[in-house]
Amino acid sequence: MSSYEIIQIDSQTWRIEDQGVRFFLLTGDREALLIDSGMTVHNAKEIAHSLTDLPVRLLNTHADPDHIGSNQEFDTVYMNPAELSNYHKTQRRTGDITPIWDGDVIDLGNRPLQVITLPGHTPGSVALLDITRRVLISGDPIQDGNIFMFGIQREICAYRHSLKKLERFMDQFDQIYPSHGTFPVMPSLIGELQAAAEKIIAGEITTTDASMFGNPIRKYDAKAAVFLLDKE
Ligand SMILES: [Zn+2]
Q1: How far is the CA of 111 from the centre of ligand 1 (A)?
Q2: What is the tally of structural domains in the chain?
Q3: Span 121-178, pLDDT tens digits
């Protein structure tokens, strides 16, 4: 059952809360962009058209199942091609993407959004820098809930490098809009997550065993967030 809540952030930005995951609608002068398409929601396009008359396109921050619930409504979706094997697992097809690369700028009309690739949580995870609003829309890598880092496609060392890469952009945003957990979060969370990832890699955080979707995992409660890694 889908139950969701639409919350307006400003005159051109909305977040849609979908049972623990959120996705966003942004509008510019020319067009609108959905950033992810929900988990239990399968009519994100319809929701978007209830909020704007502009043409709506879809971008996925990554292809985990809680972010692509309404992808079938779109002929094409902006996605980093490194995400295609992940996408194929649930969609059984991959041919309908418009590739986005690190540094690309998608302009909605006086609203440029810069793509920043952040591999680690998944190989093709991206964040978007909403340049004029000084907001980073971060997807899953930057958030204070559970950060999934188990399974073949996830890589904690790559994740650490992605957080380090964000240091270059720290003077360009004042707030972060994550896909899970507290909304919004402050840029200082990036340094806290970076310190946590380094401690996990160094084996300096005590763990508890758990199970997630049948996978034996280890939970690292790093205060800033809880990291879930493979039990080796
Ligand atoms: Zn997610």
Answers
A1: 25
A2: 1
A3: 999 999 999 999 999 999 999 999 888 888 888 989 999 999 999 999 999 999 999 9
User: What SS3 class is residue 128?
Assistant: strand
Domain that holds residue 18: 5-146+157-186
Q: Is residue 125 part of a domain?
A: yes
- Read off the CATH number of the domain in which 50 is found: 3.60.15.10
Residue type, 209: D
What is the 229 CA–ligand 1 centroid distance (Å)? 15
pLDDT tens column, 66-102: 999 999 999 999 999 999 999 998 888 777 899 999 9
Residue 209 maps to a domain? no
Q: Which residues pair with 129 in a beta bridge?
A: 114, 136
Q: How far is the centre of ligand 1, averaged over its atoms, from the C-alpha of 107 (Å)?
A: 25
Distance 38 CA to ligand 1 centre (A): 10
Asked whether residue 225 is domain-assigned, the answer is: no
| N-to-C CA span, the chain | 36
- Strand 215-221 relative to strand 175-178, pairing: unpaired
Taking each continuous run of H as one helix and of E as one strand, the counts in the chain are 4, 16
From ligand 1's centre to the CA of 225, what distance in Å? 14
Please indicate, yes or no, if residue 199 is contained in any of the structural domains.
Answer: no
Separation of CA 179 and ligand 1 centre (Å): 6
